[in-house]
Amino acid sequence: MLKGHLDMIVLAALSAGPAHGYAVIEEIRRKSGQAFDLPEGTIYPALHRLEQAGLLSSRWVVAESGRQRRVYTLTRRGERALTERRAVWRQFCEAMSGLLISAPRPGKPA
Amino acid sequence: MTSEYLDTLEAALRFDRSLAGRVRKEFEDHLRQTVAADPSEDRGQAEQRAIANCGDPRAIATEFAVISLARRAKRLAVLIVLVLVGMLLLMRGLMAWYTAIEWPISDDMKPLAATIAMVTRYAFWTATLIGVAAWAYGSRHRSPSDYAYAKYSRHLQRFCMLLSIATAALLVCVLGGGALATIRLTSTSPSIAFFIPVLSVALEVLAAGTLVILIRALTRQAEFTAGLQKA
Q1: What is the DSSP letter of A35?
Q2: Beta-strand pair A19-20/A56-62
Q3: I want to staple B55 with a disulfide (CB 3.0 to 4.6 A). Which of A41, A46, B19, B26 is the partner?
Q4: How far is CA B86 from CA A16, A99, B187, in A?
């Protein structure tokens, strides 16, 4: 189920600011209350794919350890895509809540 | 252990060296950070856990391979349009030059030249029509979710077919252009002016040859990716 929403999850994780792959994974775990424990290797292809689609940009930076690290940032197009996906998700949640959490109709025979 | 994992990942991406290098560096950094954050004192176990959490390197490589294929296909879609525009300018320029210097074709060669010119013209417009269709089709996949392997491989097959037909028509056009230049060159005595049609034909051959090489590289990469997917 998560795979279909991976792009939205990654975009949402990067909405707080630029981050490298490891930090994105940590952010997903933190924001989801450890509920989303994705196979870590799937995040990097998603980052590359989103970059190719123009939703992210990336650059190499030198970390404190001296190692090179690829940092990803949401582009304006990425921000717009995330806003659109959030709106669709809210509509979906409201509709599903209406279906699943609505009170039973009064007077319905048991 | 980490090196072995990174070597497997890099080897599976060897068709795109810059991508392989970048992916290796990103995964190396990721694995080191994961191991450093692991509370266990046993480094070997921490490495093992980090690698297990990353997943199968071949499956990861397949995902990267599709992204790389898509990038190359899009570049090729733009390249064929550029080649077609370049060829049109070259052919028009050469015709204008032949007219300007009044370089005639001998009477006995005129019927043959007219036939070759007609074939060349039809071949060029066929290449243009199919090349533009290939560009439009190749540029269609924009959404990141379109890069699922099964869906993308079908799209790529159709794109390569369109591109191959357009390039074949372009090769006919290049051969026709070469034959016409040869007819004109054999109709006059050698001079420094020979350089212009020879250069024009050489540029056309170079452009068409580059397309053939790049299409071949793309289909090979697609075959390699299909092999990774099956493995």
Answers
A1: -
A2: unpaired
A3: A41
A4: 46, 60, 27
Q: Do A67 and B29 touch (CB under 8 A)?
A: yes
Write out the residues of chain A at the interface with chain B, using a CB-CB cutoff of 8 A: 4, 7, 20-22, 39-42, 44-46, 48-50, 52-53, 55, 63, 65, 67-70
pLDDT (0 to 100) of residue A87: 92
Interatomic CA distance for residues B101 and B160, integer angstroms: 41
Report the residue from B27, B34, B53 with minimal CB separation from A39.
B53
| Percent of all residues in chain B with a pLDDT value above 70, rounded to a whole number | 96
Q: What is the ipTM of this complex?
A: 0.81
- Which residues in chain B show pLDDT less than 70? 141-148, 231
Question: How far is the alpha carbon of B112 from chain A, nearest alpha carbon, in Å?
Answer: 50
* CB contacts < 8 A (A, B): 68
Does the pTM surpass 0.80? The reply is no
Segment A44-62 shows an average pLDDT of 92
In whole angstroms, give the CA distance from residue B92 to residue B211.
21
What is the C-alpha separation between B12 and B45, in angstroms, rounded?
A: 25
Helices (H) and strands (E) in chain A, counts: 4, 3
Instruction: Scan for tokens 């424990």, then name that residue.
Output: A37
Q: Report yes or no: B111 and B197 within 8 Å, Cβ to Cβ.
A: no
* Residue among A4, A53, A70 whose CB faces B26 most closely: A70
pLDDT tens digits, B41-59 = 788 888 888 888 888 888 8
Confidence of residue A103 (pLDDT cuts 50, 70, 90): low
Q: At what angle do helices A43-52 and A6-13 cross, to 10 degrees?
A: 80
